[in-house]
Amino acid sequence: VQLQASGEGLVQPGGSLRLSCAASGRTFGGYVMGWFRQAPGKGREFVAKIWWSGGATDYADSVKGRFTISRDAAKNTVYLQMNNLKPEDTANYFCAADQFYSGRNYLGYNYSGQGTLVTVSS
After folding, report:
1. Residue 42 half-sphere exposure, CB side, CA atoms within 13 Å?
2. Nearest of 72, 90, 96 to residue 8 by alpha carbon
């Protein structure tokens, strides 16, 4: 399984950005796909996750109402639409996937990719 995140950028507070995570290597029915982030000097934290089959979602309280996770099965891609961005959203964002784990701990995911940097600053 390979996961490739993209969409990095510099945006002003209040702005929007969409991240993509292209997945390859197998079919992902039954998988949970997650987004995590790591700010400078901090640990990796959960952002959002989606069940590939059915599309159920889960969000961290800090992003609920501002971020939306979705997936496009035809493109094998998971998206993270980020609106009303705040300086505290500045971080390296990673996507991860697992067939059996559906929690919020990054270490529980068997597959992960390189991050993509999001900077929110005026």
Report:
1. 14
2. 90
